[in-house]
Amino acid sequence: MAAAASSTDRPGALDITRRLTEICGPPFARLAGPADEVAGRPARWVAVPGGPHAAAQVLRLAARHDLTVVPRGAGTKIDWGAAPDRVDIMLDTGRLAGIGHQPTGAPTAEVGAGTPLRAVQATLERTGHRLAVDAPSPGATLGGVLAAGEAGPLRHRHGSPCDQLLGVRYLDADGELVNAGGGVDGLELARLLCGSQGALGVLVSATLRVQAVPAGRIWVTRPVWTPLEVHDLVRTVLAARLDPAAVELDLPAGAGPRPRQDGRAESMARHPSMAGRAALGPAGAGRLAVLLEGGPADVAERADRLVTLLGGRSGVSHSAPEWWRRYPFGPGDTALRIEVPIADLHAAVYALRDAAGAPVPVRGSAGLGVVHAALPGAMAPDRVASILAAVRGVLLARQGRCVVLSAPPAVRRAVDLWGELAGLPRLRAAKEHLDPHHRLAPGRLPGGL
What we know:
Elements: H1 13-24, E1 29-31, E2 37-38, E3 41-47, H2 52-64, E4 69-72, E5 87-92, E6 108-112, H3 117-125, E7 129-130, H4 142-148, H5 155-158, E8 165-171, E9 177-181, H6 184-192, E10 202-209, E11 211-212, E12 216-224, H7 227-239, E13 246-251, H8 263-270, E14 286-294, H9 296-310, E15 315-317, E16 334-339, H10 345-356, E17 362-365, E18 370-375, H11 381-396, E19 401-406, H12 409-414, H13 424-434
Parallel strand pairs: 3-5, 4-5
Antiparallel strand pairs: 1-3, 2-3, 6-10, 7-11, 8-9, 8-10, 12-14, 12-15, 13-14, 13-17, 16-18, 16-19, 17-18
Helix pairs in contact: 1-2, 7-10, 10-11
């Protein structure tokens, strides 16, 4: 790759632009602009192929000229993970979209990688079906969700989108179309592409399970003040065997000790007249929210049982809390993902608070021990590094991990984004097998792969 041109003004660059235009069509191939970057690394060209055959031609052109290729969906998570070493061609999957024809009532759907997830759900909903996929990124494509290993609240009951894969079609680094699935080995390969950020293959389409839209949905919410209280409540919810579809936590930075409440207020909160009303709770409190799905009568009965179990200011609603399916971080923040056994989630949150010197906003799947947190983008890189070291030290003894999803450039350069990664040798072997010349998003994966 050292021989590849580093500027679009070098000899051969105009020829590559012409060839990309021939492959994709005049409106769909161009020199990259200021917004065409991956984790801060600018691209040289943008190609939007009109189908798998054209996408394969783009990859073959890149191979002939020793150019790197990085796939992009809607770009909602383009700054997640490590910056690639180089981005010569950004391969936009926006035209690799659509839902394959399936027989009426078929329990599966084949979806083009560039299809927006909300478009998939809207199409399936017309026949009373859905994917049990609710990734938080607005406008995300299915391919982007899979490539980033993203999952939402429904992972509690249905697993992540990658767990629901039945097969994928993808292009390898040489532009060969590969079908992966239909057996243990095929599924293992398909799921290996999940979370690979396009560094092992370019997703063309994915086949996933489809299910009927639940007739009833109820959210039971309760205010919470401390991580230890969350721990106790989650244990109560899971022990009750109420088959929740999701158990989510929102613990804002402003959440503090439980305010004192007089006996009358406590009694009023428990009065039967309050049943079925959404719990507001004091300002500054966090929230634990449990989603129940199923038949309307069954869901209502389970919700009543859960309200009784949770007590306090718990209540029910037929709509999701406003923070549901939203990350606690924004553009420019240092975004963290913490994964830890459920029993140790409170220890991880306390460790993060102690290291940061103040409460840190935390949100995510408390019922699975997978949550996200945000550190201010203005925080000094060495301070972020010290917080990560402290938190990872606590998690190491608890078989957990803390990953930096995205961060400002100075932080990105100063910290280890991944921490300890037991599967690194397997990932390295996969990269060498699937992309031996490191043409697909080189450096995007852990270990600089």
